[in-house]
């Protein structure tokens, strides 16, 4: 399979975290491509919205608001670029 450099980097970096605690290279936020950061957000949103018996249902808006709140209360927990999270959250706020 032939992938562009952009796609290959997004795949390779999609478990990196903005706070530098991700893997495989523990890259800090400014070294992670925006595409990888967006893919990471989508991956976590998908996991958060997975229906599991006994687990409360989470909307995309609730998910993104919680990410931001966790980062405000403890910046070391900020796994995602807050600016990107706010931009994606705004997309879901328009749906209401």
Would you give an account of this structure?
The chain has a single domain (5-93), classed as Hypothetical protein af1432. The chain is 52% helix and 0% strand. The protein is built from 4 helices and no strands. The protein has helices spanning 5-13, 34-48, 60-73, 82-93. Helix 1 crosses helix 2 (34-48) and helix 3 packs antiparallel against helix 4 (82-93). The longest helix is centred in the middle third of the chain and has 15 residues, at 34-48. It is globular and about 40 Å long. The termini are far apart. The mean pLDDT is 92.
Q: Roughly what fraction of the amino acids lie in strands?
A: under 5%
Q: What is the N-to-C order of secondary-structure elements (H for helix, E for strand)? A: HHHH
Q: DSSP helix count?
A: 4
Radius of gyration: 14 Å
By CATH, the architecture is named: Orthogonal Bundle
Task: Tell me roughly what share of residues is in helical segments.
Answer: 40-55%
Q: Runs with pLDDT <50, length 5+?
A: none
Largest beta sheet, briefly? none
Number of strands: 0
Shape: globular
- Can you say what the CATH homologous superfamily is? Hypothetical protein af1432
Quaternary arrangement of the chains shown?
single chain
Number of domains: 1
Average residue pLDDT: 92
**Which fold does the CATH topology refer to?**
Hypothetical protein af1432
Structural class: mainly alpha
How far the N terminus sits from the C terminus, by CA atoms, comes to 40 Å
User: What's the CATH C level?
Assistant: Mainly Alpha
């Amino acid at each position: 399979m032939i992938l562009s450099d952009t796609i290959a980097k997004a795949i390779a970096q999609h478990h990196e975290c903005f706070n530098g605690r991700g893997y495989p290279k523990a890259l800090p936020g400014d070294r992670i491509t925006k595409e990888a950061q967006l893919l990471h957000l989508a991956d976590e949103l998908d996991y958060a919205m997975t229906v599991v018996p006994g687990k409360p249902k989470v909307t995309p808006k609730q998910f993104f608001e919680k990410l931001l709140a966790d980062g405000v209360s403890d910046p070391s927990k900020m796994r995602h670029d807050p600016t990107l999270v706010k931009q994606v959250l705004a997309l879901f706020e328009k749906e209401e």
